[in-house]
Amino acid sequence: MSEVKESAETFDFVGNRLCLDFVNTVDDRSSNMPQDHISSYNDLVLWSQLAGIITAEDAQGLLEKAKQQPVEATQVFQKAVMLREVSYRIFSAIALNSPPDPSDLQELSAAYAEAMDHGTGCKKRQRLKVRYGQ
């Protein structure tokens, strides 16, 4: 596992939606040298913490678990990158007034269904939230 990024300045949270902020973790996509700001599982955990998806305690636990289960951490990272790229293609098509590729929509739907299988409902501030891992 690579080290966690030294600075949170690498990440911009300006999309008003986490899915857009996640897609935008790659700069200069159309250039010969795009900059991927999430290039490891550790970076993914840091981004998730800074985005408010997980707590600092959760992040530390995930990083410790990744040391014990590096293959699984790599698989999680690869799946996140795949979903980020699927989301990028979907949003790009929509921005161009084109229909998204059906295979991308199917991939995103399958990931959503899998995530819902692992979550449980809980009430938080008059809203129903999905909680994972407990």
Short overview:
The chain is mainly alpha-helical and 134 residues long. It has helices spanning 18-23, 41-50, 56-68, 70-95, 102-118; strands spanning 26-27, 35-36, 119-124, 127-132.
What key attributes describe this structure?
134 residues, mainly alpha, 54% helix, 5 helices
Structure report:
The model has no long low-confidence stretch (mean pLDDT 86). Helix content is 54%, strand content 12%. The chain has one domain. The relative contact order is 0.10. It is globular. The two termini are 26 Å apart. It has helices spanning 18-23, 41-50, 56-68, 70-95, 102-118; strands at 26-27, 35-36, 119-124, 127-132. With 134 residues, it is mainly α.
What percent strand?
Answer: 5-15%
Helix coverage percent: 40-55%
Structural class: mainly alpha
C-alpha-based Rg, rounded: 16 Å
Helix count, DSSP H or I runs of 4 or more residues: 5
Main sheet summary: 2 strands, antiparallel
Assembly context of the chains: single chain
What series of H and E elements makes up the topology?
Answer: HEEHHHHEE
Tell me the domain tally: 1
Low-confidence stretches: none
Cα-to-Cα separation, first versus last residue: 26 Å
Q: Count the strands?
A: 4
Name the strands of the widest sheet in spatial order: 1-2
Assign an overall shape: globular
